[in-house]
Predict the structure.
Amino acid sequence: MPIINVDCWEGFNEEQKKQWIQTLTDATVKLFNLPPDKVLVILRETSVTNWGQAGVVASDPDFLDKSRITEAAAG
């Protein structure tokens, strides 16, 4: 049985999550020729206060700008 784990930030509405689960299930059924009841999808939502990138917490109002660091800081 395929188990599809999706880690994502909080903020998707219920309809989006329903469609996401259905789309992932449909694609897996089609690709592997399985019955739908053999596909398990788990969405794990995490608060943006528990994520970070480039040393910046995702809840920071300037996260998009601050997390786009492409070079290591000099010494």
